[in-house]
């Protein structure tokens, strides 16, 4: 083995870092002994300890590297550059003007826990056990629930990797090779029309994952500049979708609202899918909503709150030229959940975005809604490979999601979106993508917790959990699932119902009373939620962090994916297993008071068989 000290190397001490850190941060590069073997091994060090290791340049013979200056190398027509990033990081750039070039740098996942990564259909936590197939592009897509997927991997040793926006990125994790996450750059569909291939990323090293994540939020990810409207935080949102699906009209919406009010609940009503003349028309259907003005005024009197309404961005048949995303053949036909005859508005075209916004704005006065549920926005609703002429070509295809979210931002803090891309700054809720009415890791109740953690650790801290009890997909929820879901959701930022508890019968308990208890718990903690949001705006802290946030060196806490925090002092451990009336609770360091009975525990401690009958949510408050 030989350790080379050439450009890629940057090497300990040779990059100008803060004097005080100069001895603590660095990396070593080792070329393979065999002259014909490709790639090199890189070890990143912090305080003399290895915190990250990688096999870089997997497609290149780095023995042939010609490094005239310390951090600038040429390998054939590939250029490698390494620069310092702040006091404790490096930006590594592989670049080639030969667009057939592929780059591949793989990081070893073993020996640490990992956080960040994409929203998934099967959402496990921490991240290191997930499998990602590198043949699929790492872009914002509906497929596999990738609606929030920043290019961010954080490990428990305090290192993070953030991949540049312009990289035509594919990620292969635990797939081609177990224990590795490989960042691959190649100019293939949907990354069209490129003039170079780029693999550029920043590695930052810190003493622990909390310091590292805050560094990431404040330097690369971004953080919110405001929080959602308090109405949406404090009181439930009642949506027509899961209960009624498309079977809605004036009478049903009013009846739904009256039912809610008569049972003693308040909040806002959301009219979901199928109120429009046609999808994307944004005008109420006459046959279903002949009296929409009266319906809206009825809602505003009855529940004294707002009406949000859903807006789909996919149109069935409107032929405005140039407003729809086309592919390289000029075809604009897109496929979505309703039909194979749709067109995706090109929000990167300011005129097309305005054409959309004008109709949305009109709804604010006629019939007078207050806010919107902005659905979809993922890039795979547009026909591939999509052409976007008004943008930096290296931002294709995620530019679609970003420009959509920027368009929605005009409508303020009383809205929700469900896709995101580099849009952490906005003061509105990002909703988890639709959940199924099941218990498990397969988009069920368990993933309410793991998706909450994933979104927070992508820098999206204003998270709107999806509908309580799921959407009725795959099956209808039963009363037990509905109630466990309600409890699990109670200390998350907002509660969104569609299924109504009084529609569920139980011989054993009164579902309505139990739901009332958890809605009250949520209301009691609304000030804490808002405080956590203000802290997020100020400092970049997650609103709902994983529990290791309390002690980022706690090896047990680092592995836990079925508990979460609200702010920094409230730990929540929901029951998410069918027929269970107890669960194991882990409390990290600190003195914790049981929110249900005032018992005090000194952490770290594992509480086996914590009793949690159907009306109990285990939660603990740190002194
Ligand atoms: C890259 O180098 C190869 C040969 O090493 C050459 O065939 C190719 O034309 C070069 N590409 C560019 C864009 O310079
Ligand atoms: C990852 O690192 C571990 C040691 O921590 C080592 O045993 C393993 O072989 C490495 N994996 C790969 C794929 O290089
Ligand atoms: C609803 O009210 C708006 C103005 O407030 C009016 O322009 C519109 O015609 C009314 N719609 C119906 C169906 O009466
Ligand atoms: C446009 O794309 C759609 C969906 O892929 C396809 O069905 C249709 O045949 C295409 N139209 C033309 C003219 O190529
Ligand atoms: C490729 O990008 C250029 C600008 O860099 C643009 O003018 C052209 O329309 C794009 N072509 C396609 C097919 O997207
Ligand atoms: C549940 O309690 C409410 C009072 O809050 C009562 O009106 C209702 O009848 C009860 N339901 C059942 C099924 O007992
Ligand atoms: C839960 O209990 C019900 C009723 O006893 C039973 O049908 C179901 O299979 C149980 N589910 C699990 C996961 O044990």
From TrEMBL:
Gene3D superfamilies with a match to the protein in the record: Glycosidases, Golgi alpha-mannosidase II
A Pfam entry, by short name: Glyco_hydro_31_2nd
Keyword Thylakoid in annotation: no
Endpoints of the signal sequence: 1-19
Domain of life: Eukaryota
Domain Glycosyl hydrolase family 31 C-terminal: 540-623
CDD domains membership: GH31_NET37
Boundaries of every Glycoside hydrolase family 31 TIM barrel domain copy: 319-521
Keyword entries, A-Z: Glycosidase, Hydrolase, Signal
Family: Belongs to the glycosyl hydrolase 31 family.
Protein name: Glycoside hydrolase family 31
Source species of the chain: Molorchus minor
Higher taxonomy: Eukaryota, Metazoa, Ecdysozoa, Arthropoda, Hexapoda
């Amino acid at each position: 083995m030989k350790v080379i000290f050439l450009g890629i190397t940057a090497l300990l001490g040779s990059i100008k870092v803060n004097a005080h850190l100069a001895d603590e941060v660095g990396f070593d590069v080792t070329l393979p002994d065999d002259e014909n073997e490709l790639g090199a091994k890189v070890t990143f060090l912090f305080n003399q300890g290895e915190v990250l290791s990688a096999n870089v340049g997997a497609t290149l013979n780095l023995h042939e590297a010609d490094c005239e200056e310390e951090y600038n190398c040429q390998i054939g027509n590939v250029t490698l550059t390494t620069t310092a990033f702040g006091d404790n990081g490096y930006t590594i750039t592989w670049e080639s003007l030969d667009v057939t070039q592929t780059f591949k740098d793989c990081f070893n996942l073993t020996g640490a826990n990992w956080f960040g990564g994409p929203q998934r259909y099967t959402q496990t936590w921490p991240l290191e056990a997930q499998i990602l197939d590198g043949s699929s592009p790492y872009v914002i897509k509906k497929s596999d629930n990738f609606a929030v997927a920043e290019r961010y991997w954080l490990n428990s040793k305090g290192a993070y990797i953030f991949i540049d926006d312009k990289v035509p990125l594919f990620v292969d994790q635990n797939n081609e090779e177990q224990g590795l996450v490989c960042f691959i750059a190649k100019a293939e569909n949907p990354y069209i029309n490129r003039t170079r291939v780029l693999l550029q990323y920043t590695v930052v090293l810190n003493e622990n994952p909390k310091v590292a994540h805050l560094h990431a939020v404040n330097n690369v990810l971004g953080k919110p500049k405001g929080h959602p409207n308090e109405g949406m935080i404090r009181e439930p949102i009642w949506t027509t979708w899961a209960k009624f699906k498309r079977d809605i009209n004036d009478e049903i919406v009013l009846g739904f609202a009256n039912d809610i009010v008569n049972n003693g609940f308040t909040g806002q009503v959301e009219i979901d899918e199928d109120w429009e003349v046609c999808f994307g028309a944004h005008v109420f259907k006459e046959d279903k909503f002949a009296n929409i003005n009266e319906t809206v005024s009825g809602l505003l009197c009855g529940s004294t709150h707002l009406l949000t309404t859903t807006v789909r961005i996919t149109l069935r048949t409107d032929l405005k030229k140039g407003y729809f995303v086309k592919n390289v053949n000029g075809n604009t036909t897109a496929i979505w959940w309703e039909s194979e005859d749709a067109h995706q508005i090109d929000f990167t075209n300011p005129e097309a975005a305005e054409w959309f916004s004008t109709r949305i704005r009109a709804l604010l006065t006629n019939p007078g809604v207050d806010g919107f549920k902005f659905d979809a926005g993922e890039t795979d609703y547009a026909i591939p490979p999509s052409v976007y002429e008004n943008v930096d070509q290296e931002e294709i295809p995620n530019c679609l999601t970003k420009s959509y979210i920027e368009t929605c931002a005009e409508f303020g803090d009383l809205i929700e979106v469900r896709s995101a891309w580099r849009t952490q700054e906005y003061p509105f809720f990002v909703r988890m993508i639709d959940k199924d009415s099941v218990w498990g890791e397969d988009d069920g109740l368990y993933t309410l917790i793991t998706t909450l953690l994933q979104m927070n650790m992508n820098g999206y801290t204003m998270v709107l959990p999806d509908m309580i009890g799921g959407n009725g997909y795959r099956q209808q929820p039963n009363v037990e699932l509905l109630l466990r879901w309600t409890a699990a959701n109670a200390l998350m930022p907002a509660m969104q119902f569609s299924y109504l508890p009084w529609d569920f019968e139980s011989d054993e308990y009164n579902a309505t009373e139990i739901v009332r208890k958890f809605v009250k718990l949520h209301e009691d903690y609304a000030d804490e939620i808002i405080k956590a949001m203000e802290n997020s705006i100020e400092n970049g802290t997650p609103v709902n962090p994983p529990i290791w946030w309390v002690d980022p060196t706690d090896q047990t806490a680092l592995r836990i994916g079925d508990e979460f925090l609200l702010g920094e002092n409230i730990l929540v451990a929901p029951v998410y297993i069918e027929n269970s009336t107890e669960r194991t609770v882990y409390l990290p360091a600190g003195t914790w008071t049981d929110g249900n009975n005032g018992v005090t525990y000194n952490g770290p401690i594992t509480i086996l068989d914590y009793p949690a009958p159907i009306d109990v949510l285990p939660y603990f408050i740190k002194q």
